[in-house]
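Before relying on records like the one below, remember that each one covers exactly one chain. Contacts with other chains, cofactors or solvent are not represented anywhere in the record.
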Amino acid sequence: MFLKIKTIFGITLILFIFNSILISQEDGDGQLWNTNRIGIKLSTNWKIELEEEFRFGSQASDMYYHHTDGYLAYKLIEWFEVGASYRQIFELKNENWQREDRPHLNGTFKWNWLGVKFKDRSRFEYRIRAGKDSVWRYRNKFTVPFPISWTKFHISPFLCDEIFYEFNKTEITRNRLYSGVALSLSEKINVKIFYLWQSSKKVDDWIDYNVFGLYLSFK
């Protein structure tokens, strides 16, 4: 029974990646995103994380975005974690680097069903932007890691979907679909390699972006 479930998940992943490749040919900029995170466990339930992210646009040739993020989290119960974070962002727009400060609150549900460890994270963020009104935004990221592990590096495929809802516009303005693999180089170093298809609403049009991502996590 469990082997059949793994097979179904494997076929689903192959179809999803194939569909993602087809979608990626439509339009939008090709980008490279690199995220590096260090996690420190303070106690059984408390942890802190520090993160830096760099994004390269114009077909991955020019850096246009950088953020630094500090995160403090507490595990209330086995299947629910809450956390608070502060993110500072610099983004290149019209040849000028613009700053945004973004405190946010997170709540993450985790559960296991038929060997699949689902994760559902809700985030409420307050965007403090230079020269613009400060606004609230809600993000929901749903992650499905496949119950498959290959080689001594524990290579495991995963899928994610994340929506962005802007309260001032009362609508969803962005969606991100991820497909990739997670692996462990050692007990202290984890890696995620993924393809991301982002669709963002610009006025009345939806613009697609195709992203190759590399995520490094150090414990």
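The longest strand covers residues 96-113.
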